[in-house]
Write a structure and sequence with these properties.
The chain has about 210 residues and is mainly alpha-helical. It has 9 helices and 4 strands. The strands form 2 sheets. It has a two-stranded antiparallel sheet with strand order 1-2. Strand 3 and strand 4 form a beta hairpin.
Amino acid sequence: MPDYHITISTDIIKQAKSYVPVSEKQTVSRAIAFFCCEAVQPNMASSMDGLPKLTMMVQENRKLRQQFQMGLLADYLGAEYSVDFVRLPGENGETVEQPLSHCMAEEDYDLWASSHVMNQLERLKKVKEHEVADKVFDILYDYKNYENMISAAIRDYMEQMNNDFNRVAEYISLFATEEVAQAVTKSLMESKEDLREVLDNVKAYKKKKGGADG
């Protein structure tokens, strides 16, 4: 066997867990989606009619997703690893670093990835010890389900954040007049059939905001 930094032995497999409860998968998947979908600067280039055209507001950080998924695989195997950190708002407007659960630090990730741990697990399916081989099948099956839930959570979160209605709601408060707000709404919603409902919502919002300012 090659001299890997991380070696998955039969003893590790025997002590590993082969299932993560679905409720935990759902909770963690949604958290991963939140951290892996990051904001991008909207493109405010004007269209031919002079109205602003906004591009996608969030995109997936695929590097961070790989770190999360490797951390989750290590969790199945009961392995220790260093986690990455995220900067979050703290008291007095200061930001503080908090550990990001399940997100394997980049240095550890490179050790695990360069050790081709997934290939090691695939090869362990062929060992003569049925207890080990069966356990590997179970681990990989459950891990694949976990990956699918993460993919779905990221897709759903991106669709939610990037769809036209949410972009209207996010940007509508930036404009001072109803005329400009309607123009932006029309530009964003030009592909939608029910524009009247959107404009009605814009008017209701402006009326509510005007009452609050008064």
